[in-house]
Amino acid sequence: MPAQILYVTDGSPSARGAGLAALELAGLWEAAIRAVFIIDESWGHILGDEWMSGAVTRANFFRWLGEGLQKQASVVLDEFCDLAKSREVRVEKQILAGSTEKLIISLAKEADLLVLPNPYAAGHPAEAGLKFNINKLARAIKCPVWLGNDKN
């Protein structure tokens, strides 16, 4: 039975469904969960005509966006931890920034089960914050992978 479940979330409906599955499995197996919210590095490469107003405006926007992403990540993880606590499941939470696929591959080395939102789940495009190629991950990760959906 898995001792460590790695749950990666972006707060989307599919991720919430995956989180519920992770909690259920952790309860059955008496496993701990490592809950990770990944802020993909690609948001920092936004560039368009709106930045013609100057570097200060751009820097202020990125600071505002970065703070907003951190707050969103904290809220999502705190809500998950509250659910876990009500089910008496141990959770370690973490917010990371970087390449989503590289981080998942690295983190999964220490996991017995990887639980992810379904990258193909239908939803509002603004909720699709976690971008990864499941085929690439499946080739690189040795542990089983559970994909959530928005129907869980």
Structural overview:
By secondary structure, the protein is of the alpha/beta class. The protein has one domain: HUPs (Rossmann fold, 3-Layer(aba) Sandwich), CATH 3.40.50.620. Helix content is 43%, strand content 20%. The protein has a five-stranded parallel β-sheet with strand order 3-2-1-4-5, with helices on both faces. α1 links the parallel β1 and β2. The mean pLDDT is 86.
Class derived from helix and strand content = alpha/beta
Give the name of the CATH architecture.
Answer: 3-Layer(aba) Sandwich
Distance between the termini: 22 Å
Q: How does the overall form come out from the CA principal axes?
A: globular
Estimate percent helicity. Answer: 40-55%
Oligomer: single chain
| Low-pLDDT stretches | none
Strand content: 15-25%
Q: From the alpha carbons, calculate the radius of gyration and give it in angstroms.
A: 16 Å
CATH topology: Rossmann fold
Q: What is the highest CATH level, the class?
A: Alpha Beta
CATH superfamily: HUPs
Spatial order of the strands forming the largest sheet: 3-2-1-4-5
Average residue pLDDT: 86
Number of β-strand runs: 5
- How many separate domains? 1
